[in-house]
Amino acid sequence: MLATFIIGLREGIEAALIVGIIAAFLRKNGKSLAAMWFGVGLAVILSIAVGVGLDLVEQALPQAAQEGMEAAIGAVAIFFVTGMIVWMNTHARNMKKELEAQAAEALSHASAYALAVMAFLAVLREGFETSVFLLATFSAAQSATLAATGAVIGIAIAVVIGGGIYAGGVKLNLGRFFRITGAFLILVAAGLAITALRSAHEAGWLNAGQQATVSLSWLVAPGTVQSALITGVLGIPADPRLIEVLGWLAYLVPVTLYVYWPHAYRPSRRGVARLQFAVAIGLAAVAAVLATALPRPDPAPVGPVMVVAAEGDTQAIGTAQLRRPASGTPAVLDVALTGEQGTALPLGTARREQHGGVSALAWTVDNTGVPANAPNTLTLDQIVALSGGRIPVGLNPAQHPGPFTADWSMRRAVHVWAADGMLLDATARDTTIVTLSGSGLQTPRTLLVRADDSAPARNWQVAASYRDQVAASLTAAAAAREEWRFWAIQLPILLCIAAGLIVLAAGRTLRQARRSSSTNPAYADRRANTSTQGTPHGAR
Q: Between the CA atoms of 472, 474, 476 and 481, what dihedral angle is there, to the nearest 10 degrees?
């Protein structure tokens, strides 16, 4: 409530001052105020419509999109309030004179309608800023009702003060007022930076820098005065994350120094330009260090790949290894089973698919053939044994006593999955089919032969313990790479952009300094005197 009260009061007074000065100027020159009030009313309606429209759009979005929109609105609100603080800190003392000069120029060139447009645009600007800032503050507030109440009270008091200033009954030190409220709004905007960063994380935009820093639960216990002030007003949560603390400091420190640095110690324009160049160089250096000093993380190596006979079995029957011999050649799976000669299985072309929640390269290798030592004929007892002790459907011992002619076929399917160059999973399954004919069968009968329990190595898979270790390693590597991409790529790019903008600002400051020196003879004479001090008279 306190934050929205200060926002409404400050923005309301700023708009009321503009309207009051223009109204007093119109009254002094005998002009009607009707057009001005029409422009003010229209600006207020449009500002309210913007706030309501943004809120309705946000409510209609899915949860993740709502969080993203809140982050965007928070960023825009921070930009608006920072610009407002800096502008008012610079112009508050001469605001009345500047507005009266602009009003006089507008009135001399056109009519009272020009001043009405001037009031409309001024109030519309303040209204837009207020709508966005209040909407962002409502999102971070513990109670939207109290936040709205604070804003309404602040705006109402601002209107009363503005009326008093217009009537001449209220004297307000604008410089001191905006300076004091500016300090409070800097803290609120820094809290909005935390809220915007947290909303960006909840929207899935920012997943880096989420390490816990300090726990403030002892200080901001729910329902306490400290919680209402620190969390509800200043936007500082009980569990600030690393990126939130850095964002809070990155906003609070430079803006506070810029706005409240003592005027007596402020450098000249050339000094400001040199300082800006130094800051830009510092940012570029930090970006270079981050981009080059942080290595790209890889998954932690996992021990040998153990192969087991069946799901749930922990008894190792061999090992497997995935290797890529050379660039452009197929990957090879080496399998060494106990009691058998090791095999190297070329895997061919891979495809991309999800396996166990991991995006992996997948291969499937199919081999067909005939089982070794497969008999050409089978008795009924042999067929029952192959069927697991049951007579297959379609065979009648009385009508089909055997023996039967047996036609064998076997398909061996090996499935392999890999991610980040590591073997993620692998399975091998044999499917044996025998087709029976003769012994009174009118048509051939197909029988799926059960796996031979005496040779379990025919069907194998990677041990579950290994799969769990690989999944944990890949998950940790993915999180580490998310951090690495932010700190080593995205943040350096942002720092370089900021450095470029500061360089442009420094160039603009230098041009202004040169224009000032060329149009101010006294300044030029001082420069000339300084440059010729200590020079022999004849050389001057």
A: -170
